[in-house]
Design a protein that fits this description.
Layout (H helix, E strand, L loop, with lengths): L1 H8 L30 E4 L6 E6 L10 H9 L5 H21 L7 E3 L1
């Protein structure tokens, strides 16, 4: 998640860009383990205004077989059919989130 936020915003952790002549500093703009009412908060540096975003992925239920398939794979099950089924079910949910629910106001809550 941090990598995606970094790509979208330019923000970075301690190893980020140090800036040029005191400007354009990107390091230490990502912080973790903060108490938040939601999943992630974006705050403007210039005005201090912020928005908290929370994904409500329960709106797009996963196939009920996914948890047991994942457990099998993590336990070392190397059956190609298990891997393929897991991948297909996982990608189907991602597809439904991104394509079928891209405009569902219940999926992303901003506060």
């Amino acid at each position: 998640m941090a990598a995606v936020v970094g790509l979208l915003t330019g923000a970075a952790g301690a190893g980020g860009f140090k800036g040029l002549a005191g400007r354009f500093v990107r390091r230490d703009l990502l912080r973790f383990a903060q108490e938040l009412p939601g999943g992630i908060r974006f705050r403007r540096l210039d005005s201090g205004q912020s928005v908290t975003a929370t994904l409500q992925l329960a709106q797009v239920p996963a196939d009920p077989r996914l948890p047991s398939l994942l457990q099998r794979l993590l336990a070392g099950d190397d059956d190609p059919a298990t891997s393929e089924l897991f991948a297909n079910l996982w990608q189907d949910r991602v597809r439904r989130i991104l394509l079928d629910h891209f405009d569902d106001p219940r999926l992303l809550v901003l506060a």
